[in-house]
Amino acid sequence: MKNFGLRELRLVRPAGGEWPNEKARAVAARAVDLIDAAKVYDSLDAALADLQYVYAASGRPRAQDKLAKDVVLLRQVQDALPPAGTRIGVMFGREDNGLYNEELVRANAILTIDTDPGFYSLNLGQAVLITCYELFRAPRRSGLGAKRDPASRREVEGMLGRLFTALEARAFFTPYNRDVLHFAIRGFFDRVDRLSRQDVAAMLQVLKALQRTPSSPGSGSSSTESADSKEQR
């Protein structure tokens, strides 16, 4: 990371529990400052909360279709990066099992490294190194949307939580389609061109209106007729 100018390391429940530890310091060479400054979180949602765009690094081809996520090839990431000033994070998984589906869905897009299809697995250190290198050499663009105030993952997750709760209350999901529809709805919002805080606020207002108890039929028209009749008199 430090070789390529990336200095903010976030860890979710690191193996061994204690962090920083002497084993990590011993292999860090001249990057001990990065190890000591790493932030440790109890949950993935907490680690992603303030970020505005998140990539999930994965070499598993099932991610795109099942999770309804866009897949960005690492060598093409410079064409897909959000505008300069956006708080971006790259999420890596475990050495042995990578990221689980419930973690992949927290990302805006899947980031994958070109490899031989017959042997696409990389160890965690290799994947991080290659990704950091490509991000280091990718120019940041201002582009359209740079002046918008992007929503954070905390804000997007809060909106999605409200949406799923409202749909559950209307019996929209069944035990057979719940996961598929959750993935599809998440994928839809993640493919929208980077939700702004204004977008999220508008969506929350829509949900609030839909969750109100409807007024009884005819109640509005009767009051209008009464007012009209008074004017005619």
Automatic annotation (TrEMBL):
GO BP, one annotated term: tRNA nucleoside ribose methylation
Domain tRNA/rRNA methyltransferase SpoU type: 1-133
Region (Disordered): 211-233
InterPro entries: Alpha/beta_knot_MTases, RNA_MeTrfase_TrmJ/LasT, SpoU_MeTrfase, tRNA_m1G_MTases_N
PANTHER family on file: TRNA/RRNA METHYLTRANSFERASE (PTHR42786), TRNA_RRNA METHYLTRANSFERASE SPOU TYPE DOMAIN-CONTAINING PROTEIN (PTHR42786:SF7)
Family: Belongs to the class IV-like SAM-binding methyltransferase superfamily. RNA methyltransferase TrmH family.
Protein name per Swiss-Prot or TrEMBL: tRNA/rRNA methyltransferase SpoU type domain-containing protein
